[in-house]
Amino acid sequence: MKLFTIFGNPVTHSKSPRMYNICFKKYNLNDYCYTRTLLEDGEKIIDVFKKLKISGASVTVPHKEWAYRLVDEVRGIAKEIKAVNCLVMENGKIIGYNTDAEGFVESIKEFNYENVLIIGAGGTAKALSFMFKNADILNRSEKRLRDFKNHKTFTWGNFEIKNYDLIINTTSAGLNDDNLPAPKEILENLFKNAKYAVDVIYHETPFQKLAKKYNLKIKDGSDMLVYQGVLQFEKFVDFEINKKEVANLMKSVILS
Ligand code: NDP
After folding, report:
1. Does the beta carbon of 226 sit less than 6 angstroms from any atom of ligand 1?
2. Element (H, E) at 248
3. 248 CA distance to ligand 1 middle (Å)
4. Is-above-0.70 flag for pTM?
């Protein structure tokens, strides 16, 4: 039996077990099983991984930084992002990857854009800023903006509006409330000239609803969830996968 899991807190709501298990089944990996692991103390992530003899794991909020610090080796863009969302046991060593940012880019690959504005300055914004090197960052408050040394950064108070084609909401505004990620007037001015409004939250938010009024093409975070998952699945199995097929299977779970 090969065991896979998702580490998070909370984790009961996670659709990941169904997303991965349906794909294992499709590829006749009948001895592969993906579960959920509620982990309260991120510092224990590697101990638990080893104790349960896990072959691969997804890591979600709030443990990505602990995973980054504790793995035997960090590979790829995770080194820059300094956060790991995927752990794989390879020849006795635990390797850490980050598939969030690449998953996001894959989810908007059909979009045609030049100027990008990222709203928010938390972990997700940081990951995306490595894929969108020229993006400007707009955040509610100053403190987190210090992490974006290579970007032009603004708070709501000093924001100089210019034309952005793609506006990305990485904040948690709208996740469990009716908040917009920035004042309505700012968003309305941005939407007048933008083409796309993309959210990392999986359901429709006030941000997306407002963007719809301005006829922007909108996207929620479910495709990002799917594509970061496809990239993880590829690392969990050691053969070439049909990415489109895996994405469609994962989508069927998310939509059900
Ligand atoms: P963080 O806690 O690291 O950052 C939160 C950010 O949101 C901060 O910039 C904060 O601003 C801002 N913020 C919070 N509330 C508000 C508000 N009411 N108005 C304006 N700004 C606000 O969060 P993460 O980056 O870890 O996660 C952000 C979102 O991304 C979550 O909703 C999460 O579910 C989603 N996510 C989706 C993924 C997917 O696959 N689709 C993958 C990963 C995350 P300030 O600095 O002022 O506090």
Report:
1. no
2. helix 243-255
3. 27
4. yes
